[in-house]
Amino acid sequence: MAKSDFEYMSGFGNHFSTEAVKDALPAGQNAPQEPAYGLYTEQLTGSPFTAPRAANKRTWTYRIRPSVMHPPYTAMKHPTLRSAPFNEAPTPPNQMRWDAPDFPSGQTDFIDGLTTIAGNGDIDSWTGLAIHIYAANASMKDRYFYNADGELLIVPQAGALLLRTELGKLHVNPGEIAVIPRGIKFAVDIDGASRGYVCENYGAPLQLPDLGPIGANGLANPRDFLIPVAAFEDFDGPCDVIAKFGGKLWTTQYDHSPLDIVAWHGNYAPYKYDLANFNTINTVSFDHPDPSIFTVLTSPSHPTGTANIDFVIFPPRWMVAENTFRPPWFHRNLMSEFMGLIHGVYDAKEARGNDGGFVPGGYSIHNCMSGHGPDAAVVDKAMTADLKPVKIENTLAFMFESRYILRPTKSALDAKTLQQNYFKVWADIKRRFKT
Questions:
Q1: Which of 211, 244, 274 is the last residue of a domain?
Q2: Are 284 and 414 within one domain?
Q3: How many whole angstroms separate alpha carbon 200 and alpha carbon 203?
């Protein structure tokens, strides 16, 4: 699954046109009486019809069979996947951290390998989020999935994924991300053991943040987002389609592949992004700005500035601030933080003791107004360091930040990977007060 095997279009939020068969796209109108090649017209809308033009999301598709051709869905159970409301267990104000999950021993595909960690909000009112992890070792064979409750931001940590979607294929490596919009069907192919994180966004679709005083340039550039070209499957035979709808899973069986769109045009499509293309902004004098300067994508909310979700990364970067405590300072936030580590060492969490430390594939939750910050050893090091320019390298951490308290599931609170002694990383912070 080399990157060179896939074709993409460049840009974020653009109107794209692509066809897998020449002249499959109609010219001059969207719904001709008889589309070319005996295809059927189907519109896919990801926003209310009357949304402002800048926020209107829709794609016209031309497919072999319309999506309506299937038997009724029936309810199905999933042992580790949860949805809003997250009220099955009391949410403690404690700092929480988990070790990386084990890879599965038996055959487990992406859907079966999902485990919900936390979330909040209301699916019915399009607000909030759920955070899941996945650990899988098998491809989805004759099995497909779509989520009517929200879009999916997928962050691989180990192992590449091939996302076969209705609108084309995305090959996603660790260090890259993919977003599957609400309602789009897809399957996941896996080459070996894979693990990562998924943010299910119930709210407004993820978008690039406004840059404000930064100006026109910086952070994630629209042209670096890649959208797949049209690709389709055409076979007859049974396959299962799973839907997440109203917080529950439902399943039905098609007699053909649902990935049969031959051509499409519009601005509602899956996309991928290489986090190495992020143009990091940082201080060149003293102190350091808020972590909002590392925002890749945001799901806006009200009031303005209290995001439903901010997706933030901490990539390699130079540290040059003078007379400054350079790691993240101790802080208590209105916004709640879920943090994960893709590879390397996070500069505020260098210790590897205390239940294993903050390791790749692990994750932590620091909720609203819960104090947190660097480990004791990092504090001593940072307060006595010779402040020369230094480059933080070979690391990539990220954060899902939200206006909502992140309410862990009961299974997350009971998990053997929950580090019971996480609080001890701050126990040896020295008293320095002098008069």
A1: 274
A2: yes
A3: 9
Sheet holding 186-190, edge to edge: 74-76, 248-256, 236-245, 143-147, 186-190, 161-165, 168-172
Residues 229 and 332 in one domain: no
List the chain pLDDT tens, one digit each, 435 residues: 444 568 999 999 999 999 999 999 999 899 999 999 999 999 999 999 999 998 999 999 999 999 999 999 999 999 999 999 999 999 999 999 999 999 999 999 999 999 999 999 999 999 999 999 999 999 999 999 999 999 999 999 999 999 999 999 999 999 999 999 999 999 999 989 999 999 999 999 999 999 999 999 999 999 999 999 999 999 999 999 999 999 999 999 999 999 999 999 999 999 999 999 999 999 999 998 999 999 999 999 988 888 999 999 999 999 999 999 999 999 999 999 999 999 999 999 987 655 679 999 999 999 999 999 999 999 999 999 999 999 999 999 999 999 999 999 999 999 999 999 999 999 999 999 999
The label of the residue with tokens 């039905």 reads: 252
Domain that holds residue 206: 71-260+268-274
CA dihedral 400, 403, 409, 414 (to 10 degrees): 70
Close Cβ partners of 434 (under 8 Å, ≥ 6 residues apart): none
Exposure on the CB side of residue 374, measured as CA atoms within 13 A: 18
State whether 228 and 291 are in the same domain: no
Residues 6+ apart with CB under 8 A from 22: none
Parallel/antiparallel/unpaired status of strands 225-228 and 271-274 = antiparallel
**Single-letter code of the amino acid located at 126:** W
Starting at the earlier edge strand, list the strands of the sheet with 114-122.
Answer: 8-10, 225-228, 271-274, 176-180, 151-158, 194-201, 127-136, 114-122, 407-408
Residues 362, 410, single domain; the answer is: yes
- Concatenate the DSSP letters of all residues of 129-179 into one string: EEEEEEEE-S--TTEEEEESS-EEEEEEEES-EEEEETTEEEEE-TTEEEE
Q: Report the catalytic residues.
A: 288
Placement of tokens 């943040």 in the chain: 209
Decide: pTM greater than 0.85: yes
Count of domains in the chain?
Answer: 2
Q: 325 and 221, same structural domain?
A: no
DSSP class of 101: P
**Cis bond before residue 85 (omega within 30° of 0):** yes
The CATH number given to whatever domain includes residue 333 is 2.60.120.10
